[in-house]
Amino acid sequence: MVVDKLVNWQKYPFGEAWQRAFSFLNSLSSETEDGKYEIQGDDIYAIVMSYETVLRSGAMLESHKKYVDIQATLRGTEGFECHSVDSLVVREPYDAQKDIEFYETDTKAHSLLSISVGSFAMFFSHDAHMPCLAVGIKKEYIKKVVIKIRAELL
């Protein structure tokens, strides 16, 4: 997992795919329309979405095998709960078509994150993450982007 400010993205030596992802990410604003954006075919793409954050009971703990996620808010603050997948019980087995696996949520997180405008979190296949969380007890309407990079490109 990587968590940092957007201005620091060039400090990471992840290559051309990383550069393409952040070039796209840095072109977005809170006015960007929701939808799927192709960056490099199926290898790198982005999904911009808007929704109200939820309390933990309404969120799902997930991980991905084929793609690495870069998640950033364009408006508002989103909470994340993070776990190592090797310590979790599978709730729904890996779906290769959707590139997602879900886990039971009765374990305590090893990390809690709050990602606000100007920051990002990057999740690898061993990083289970629970996005969409309200920070504290206050739900908030946010806009965010998830950039998917095929893992072998990094």
Describe the structure concisely.
This protein has 154 residues and is mainly beta. It is 7% helix and 50% strand.
What does this molecule look like?
The chain is mainly beta. It has one domain (2-153): Jelly Rolls (Sandwich). It has one helix at residues 15-25; strands at 2-5, 35-40, 44-52, 61-63, 67-75, 77-84, 90-95, 100-103, 111-116, 119-123, 127-133, 141-150. The protein has a 6-stranded antiparallel sheet. A 3-stranded antiparallel sheet has the order 4-8-7, with no helix packed on it. A 3-stranded antiparallel sheet has the order 9-6-11, with no helix packed on it. It is globular and about 40 Å long. The model has no long low-confidence stretch (mean pLDDT 95).
Mind telling me the C-alpha Rg? 15 Å
- Please state the structural category: mainly beta
Count of beta strands: 12
How are the strands ordered across the major sheet? Answer: 1-10-5-12-3-2
What is the CATH architecture descriptor?
A: Sandwich
The main pleated sheet reads as: 6 strands, antiparallel
Q: How many separate structural domains?
A: 1
* CATH class assignment: Mainly Beta
Distance between the termini: 13 Å
Overall geometry comes to globular
Tell me what portion of residues adopts beta-strand conformation: over 45%
The CATH homologous superfamily: YhcH/YjgK/YiaL
- H/E series: EHEEEEEEEEEEE
The DSSP helix count reads 1
Mean pLDDT: 95
